[in-house]
Amino acid sequence: MSTDNIKEVVKEKYGEAALRVGKGGSACCGSAPSTASGCCDPITSNLYDASQAGQIPEEAMLASLGCGNPTALAKLNPGETVLDLGSGGGIDVLLSARRVGPTGKAYGLDMTDEMLTLANENKRKSGLNNVEFLKGEIEHIPLPDNSVDVIISNCVINLSADKDRVFAEAFRVLKPGGRFAVSDVVTKGEVPSEIRKSVLAWVGCVAGALEQGDYRAKLKAAGFDNVHLEPTRIYRIEDAREFLSGQNINVDAIAPQVDGKFMSAFVRATKPQKTAASCYQ
Fold it and tell me: Which SS3 state, helix, strand or coil, does residue 210 take?
């Protein structure tokens, strides 16, 4: 799989998800099918509580493709500038905008035109004026150095084939003392090669997941301090069966090898007040 191939498949599948929401459906994490209960899969379901759902347009909730709830776990203060990497339909941007208030700013960055169209419509419905959605890739953030207080992301960094570049860019745009606070899928130990080689499993949020120790090491290599990784959901055999189904993988053969190896995690780190140049910059 080349980086370009992965990027195009991700863009196509997430564009299709945005169009489904526009037609009154719901988005699923990548290619995962909807279940009878309406929950797409164990990764994306039941992440936001009723009070949060009441703060945003329904379409923003339906378009959620995340694996966690970074806005509930990240500390956001009035007047701060927040950037959401891979903002999709805008759910975490809109929730963040309310947290930072009218003196703050919430940016959303996404590469998919259909998601940006949906996000801007959700912004209009929300009535919020401190929100801006940008088109671009998380490996090339279109913002100046030292311009953001907090970076959040929700199950998107795992979709990038160049995570070192993502972490270097995040480090660049954060102000000294800025915080990195993202939800992502990570693994505990190695996973079967069949999953790593599956393009659809990349879109389904699992093939590109970093091993938790590698995640910490890459953040530190980019220059971050105070790196912490906190598991929020650990996926068992039946969860694996659900999120790997329909992806040309022998789930029965693989499931025992992935039991408990995939997890959603909340990852925190900080940019030091005084920094040396990152080796990736």
Answer: strand
Element (H, E) at 131: strand 131-135
In one-letter notation, the amino acid at residue 152 is I
What distance in Å separates the CA atoms of residue 102 and residue 34, rounded to the nearest whole number? 37
Provide, for the chain, the percentages of residues in helix, strand and coil under a 3-state DSSP scheme, each rounded to the nearest 5. 40, 20, 40
Burial classification of residue 279, based on how many CB atoms lie within 10 Å of its CB (0-12 exposed, 13-18 middle, 19 or more buried): exposed
Asked if 270 and 148 touch (Cβ cutoff 8 Å), the reply is: no
Q: Could you tell me how far CA 258 lies from the centroid of its own chain?
A: 21
Q: At what angle do helices 212-222 and 163-173 cross, to 10 degrees?
A: 40
User: What is the torsion angle, in degrees rounded to the nearest 10, for the CA atoms of residue 137, residue 268, residue 218 and residue 48?
Assistant: -50
Both tokens assigned to 16: 């299709």
pLDDT tens digit sequence for 128-143: 999 999 999 999 999 9
Written as one letter, the residue type at 30 is G
Using DSSP, state whether 170 is helix, strand or coil.
helix
The tokens for 105 are: 């700013």
Rounded CA-CA distance 113/217 in Å is: 33
- Could you give the CA distance from residue 269 to residue 223 in angstroms, rounded to a whole number? 10
The answer to whether 278 and 222 have CB atoms below 8 angstroms apart is yes
Residue 131 near residue 100, CB atoms below 8 Å: no
Phi, psi of 225 (to 5 degrees): -110, 170
What are the pLDDT digits (tens) for 219-269? 999 999 999 999 988 888 777 666 666 666 677 777 777 778 888 899 999
Instruction: Report strand pairing: 262-270 vs 225-234.
Output: antiparallel
Mention every residue, 6+ apart, whose C-beta is less than 8 A from residue 8. Answer: none
CA-nearest of 199, 185, 186 to 31 is: 199
| d(C-alpha 150, C-alpha 145), whole Å | 13
